[in-house]
Amino acid sequence: FNWNVSATEWMTIGKWNSINKLDLDRAVLNTSPTFDRILQIVTVVEEPFFFTVTNKDGSVANVGFCMDLLDHFAKKMDFVYNISIMTEYGVQDPTTGMWTGVVGEVAYKRADMAVA
Questions:
Q1: Strand-pair partners of 114
Q2: Distance from chain centroid for Cα 15
Q3: Residue 56 class from Cβ within 10 Å (0-12 exposed, 13-18 middle, 19+ buried)?
Q4: What gap in Å lies between CA 46 and CA 58, rounded to an integer?
Q5: Residue-wise pLDDT tens digits, 3-35
Q6: Of 107, 20, 38, whose CA–CA distance to 78 is shortest?
Q7: Which pLDDT does position 13 carry in this prediction?
Q8: What is the SS3 assignment for the chain?
Q9: What is the pTM of this model?
Q10: What does the alpha-carbon distance between residue 13 and residue 104 come to, in Å, rounded to a whole number?
Q11: What band does 116 get if pLDDT is binned at 50, 70 and 90?
Q12: What is the pairing mode between strands 81-86 and 60-63?
């Protein structure tokens, strides 16, 4: 996994493969960069990974595996974020080559990270 630390810097924080699954670099996570802004995160509603629930008091909460993972990283790496919900993961236009959805938001730097 690569983390967008700034507009020009990426940091590898872990790897995934079918044998060892998720392998996070603990040394990197324990020496996290500082973020000088609120990170923009994009996602798609897809249970059980990300969805919203309405609490008894009428407030709405984002929940699911991706939210748990994002909250874990936010605490470990000390950052705050805004979430934007997209309607699709993304499709590449065969004529223009432009991407839509979550992929487009990250590719065109309108979002710092996708959680999906």
A1: 42
A2: 15
A3: exposed
A4: 22
A5: 555 555 666 777 777 776 777 776 555 655 667
A6: 38
A7: 72
A8: CEEECCCCCEEECEEEECCCEEEECHHHHHCCCCCCCCEEEEEECECCCEEEEECCCCCEEEECHHHHHHHHHHHHHCCCEEEEEECCCCCECCCCCCECHHHHHHHCCCCCEECC
A9: 0.69
A10: 23
A11: confident
A12: unpaired
pLDDT digit string, tens, across residues 27-56:
555 655 667 779 999 999 999 999 999 999
Nearest to residue 81, comparing CAs of 25, 108, 24, 42? 42
Condensed to tens digits (0 to 9), the pLDDT of residues 64-96 reads 999 999 998 888 778 899 999 999 999 999 999
Residues 86 and 107: beta-carbon distance below 8 Å: no
Structure tokens at 40: 């923009």
